[in-house]
Amino acid sequence: MFQNLIPSTLTRAILAVFLFIAAALPSHAQQYGDFTYSYSNSNDFGGYVITGYTGTGGAVYIPERIYFYDNDPGAYFYVTAIERSAFSGKANITSVTIPRTVKSIGWGAFDGCRGLTSVTIPNSVTSIWPEAFSGCSGLTSLTIGSGVTSIGDYAFSGCTRLTSVTIPN
After folding, report:
1. CB atoms < 10 A from the CB of 36, how many?
2. Is 130 in contact with 152 (CB distance < 8 Å)?
3. How far apart are CA 79 and CA 81, in angstroms?
4. Residues 95-153: pLDDT tens digits?
5. Per-residue pLDDT tens digits for 86-99
6. pLDDT digits (tens, 9 = 90+) for 13-49
7. Phi and psi, residue 19, nearest 5°
8. CA angle 44, 117, 85 (to 5 degrees)
9. Do the bridges between strand 35-40 and strand 150-151 make them parallel or antiparallel, or are there none, so unpaired?
């Protein structure tokens, strides 16, 4: 009577392959220009979160908003955070413009961006997570906005050429 409830070896193998492939796929990541992003209402800020960078480097301008055209042409959400490791290891990035809508820079977000020479963190950013800019050995100039209330451990470790840091009151 219960023989049909026990899956065959072939059924179990197919299920295992399916689960392996599903686990390897990114969850809800979408592409917008040179950026991958996802929508998040689970972080403290809501909105779109930059999850990765696929561009070639140089001067990078993170978009302030990402537009979608499904049911409401011209609708958009603001970019409110840069996710953990989003730009990690992108040695060809020379500068980054972070929009005034971003409130959080994730753990190791720019880790290992050796070509990055200057960063201005806007007043909207309240938190810089640990190791956010670690290993940015080319970084010479840093300006931190007045909204920053927390800077994680080792956020700027390995920034050996950093000669100019501006921190507001």
Report:
1. 18
2. yes
3. 6
4. 999 999 999 999 999 999 999 999 999 999 999 999 999 999 999 999 999 999 999 99
5. 999 999 999 999 99
6. 444 444 343 333 344 568 989 999 998 775 566 789 9
7. -65, -35
8. 35
9. unpaired
Residue with tokens 């958009």: 76
C-alpha closest to that of 148 among 118, 165, 124: 124
The CA distance from 40 to 38, in Å, is 6
Structure tokens of 58?
């140089």
DSSP string, 82-142: E-TTTTTT-TTEEEEE--TT--EE-TTTTTT-TT--EEEE-TT--EE-TTTTTT-TT--EE
pLDDT at 42: 59
Q: Scanning the structure block, which residue is given the tokens 């909204």?
A: 147
Each residue of 9-34: b (16+ CB within 10 Å) or e? eeeeeeeeeeeeeeeeeeeeeeeeee
8 A C-beta contact, residue 134 and residue 119 = no
Closest CA to 126 of 48, 60, 65, 44: 44
The pTM of the full predicted model, rounded to 2 decimals, is 0.79
